[in-house]
Amino acid sequence: MDNNNCYHCGDDCGKKPIIWDKQQFCCDGCKTVYEIFQKNDLSHYYEIRAAAGASSKEAEGKYDFLAVPDIVEKLLEFNEDRLQIVNLYIPHIHCSSCIWILENLNRLQPSVLNSQVDFPKKTVRITYKSDTFNLQQLVLLLARIGYEPYISLEDHDKGKKQINRDLIYKLGVAGFAFGNVMFLSFPEYLDMPRDGVGEYWLEEYKGLFRGLMFAFSLPVVFYAAQDYFISAYKGLRSKILNMDVPIALGIMVLFLRSSIEIMFNWGSGFFDSLTGLVFFLLIGKFFQQKTYAFLSFERDYKSYFPIAVTKIDENRNESSIQVYEIKAGDTLLIRNQELIPVDGILVSGKAKIDYSFVTGESQPTEKAIGDRIFAGGKQMYGAMEMKALKSVSQSYLTQLWSDAVFKESKSGKFQNITDRIGKRFTIAVLSIAFAATTFWIFHDPKMAINVLTAVLIIACPCAIALAAPFTLGNMLRIFGRKKLYLKDAQAIERLAQIDTAIFDKTGTLTSATKLQATYEGMVLTKEEESLLKNTLRASNHPLSRSLYALLAEHDIVTLDTYEEHVGKGIEAGAGDDKIRIGSAGFAGGDVVPKASDTAIHITANNDYKGCYVFNNHYREGLSDVFLSLSKHMQLVVLSGDNAGERSRLQAILPTETRLIFNQKPEQKLSVVRTLQALGKKVLMVGDGLNDAGALMQSHVGIAISEDINVFSPACDGILDASKFKELPRYMEAAKSAMKIINFSFMLSLMYNVVGLYFAVTGQLQPVIAAILMPLSSISIVAFTTLMTNRVGSKLD
Q1: For the whole prediction, is pTM greater than 0.85?
Q2: In terms of Cα–Cα distance, which of 623, 531, 624 is closest to 580?
Q3: Mean pLDDT over all residues of the chain?
Q4: pLDDT given for residue 769 in this prediction
């Protein structure tokens, strides 16, 4: 850095720099940020990023508009109870150091509670205390540390579609240099010409040619190949031998040796191999990037969530619509335990909203009619009606699903295997390279440099590292197309390891759309029927939804009280009337239906009335699903109902299936934990309502989606109910994906063993190694893509 440049931002300090801690700064802002870094042990930032900050002078006055409440409201994602959340697009995010500093904002500013970077989209989602810190101060802080956000009120989305073309530029520079170096090297490839004139011409100008080759190599080494050096340096600083270490070493050895050769007129060097190596490396990276972009798909609400929300039209008719069909001005019915899909205004009913999905705070917030409510909250007090203020935000539900607030670590072992293989392989390559070089120094010194660079280049573990992400990425896309929506690629790894499957009964094994009910007991009055209908309207339980659809229409009544007791039933009130709906024990029922039936008992104003008896309809293909799974794993059915269905299930399911009844949600969770304590890898399949604890605890939790909003962050996947019978095939596909990864590992190792043999024996030129190395990576990518597509075709 120049002597008069600011240590933090790199700007000219002028005639009166601020000196502090033996460093100079252009302004108090840069000095303050430096002090914060030092105080919080973040000074490593200056070592991993040169000229880290952006000038605070440039940001001065630029963001005064963020002091206007109306403008801030448009930018905020969440604004409630002295807590605000904003998602900012930051074009300067480009490497791990960027992620590191942005996710440590809470150490720079105590008012920042949490910050999460989405690296592919170059965004950071920041939660902060709005009573001690505001959006303008946050943006200025980001600008001062070098990460000025892009903010456009008129065309915000357009700004987020900017494309990073760095790789294309680097590829162009490397390709241009490689072509010219090959052209300049051509006369020496043909050896010295025989005629005197030609020989004189070459001898006279070879210094110029070699100088030009050196000049062409400079932008290749210091620009096009800089990512490899940066990655290797950061890895070594962290005492990690990553896959870029041998590549960076090979490039540097070629460059230094070639420069020395032309400097002392020993020869023309290896500039053709050097520029060719970087060019073909970047071609491989470009191909990988394009292929992965093709395999990946926008992880938004349209792709992931087969969920619906109830819309109320002008005639008060209720109908289910997909969340992406919501428009500003629509009236939506949000039931108990349902997620609020969009920002809106409460227009009817009472609201007690749990925003823990968004903020991590579990204390529900009560709302009155006219209050604003935010997307991501969960209604905890019966039914309410809201007026939508906007459509569903792109990828918002996916963001909630993956949020670390409620995300429990379920590490996948194959990623760890990849890391371990990459580290050990790098150590092995470096050892072989230096051992082979030492051997050739004593036997034929001219061959030593060729052997060293050929070994370092050909034996790169890139292909090994690519096997898992490309296989799992493509399988994630295929599963989504087949209506199994998984949270992340690691869920596929865990799904392949399952040896025990647990199924909830009601709403999972049974189909709510085919249930029929008959009433047994005293006739309900019109007022009691109305209260029953409105109480059921507020519930999201499968039996409640089924009975609600079967009852006659009644006027909508706002409930004064509502409480849903998980696994037991509901109690509600309107005016002086009270009602209890649920199990016999909860409602105080004395009518005993047939043992094989499921019943909802009703007590009105402390008088038991009777019960609605349901005849369970099990899902199509249930027997085949259990028969197929029983060949490879232990099966368990958990039910909150009584044991009346035991004989019927025993007739349908394999004899070794365990049937456990009268299970409360906490007991289901206990069963999962008990099996895991025995070393079992547990799959939990539930309806996403009463099974949240078991879904979260299990190795893989899958929620079955029918025609209601079953969104639950506790689950690892959502399976469309129409695809329930395909579950065994999905699990087999996950195992096939793991076999593809293992085979890819072996294929890559075979590539490297063969390549190392020719490199160590001196039979492989560096430029040939430079061509073969990315080809091996490309072949692995092609292999995993073709094989996973083949597995996917079997799911059709």
Answers
A1: no
A2: 531
A3: 77
A4: 66
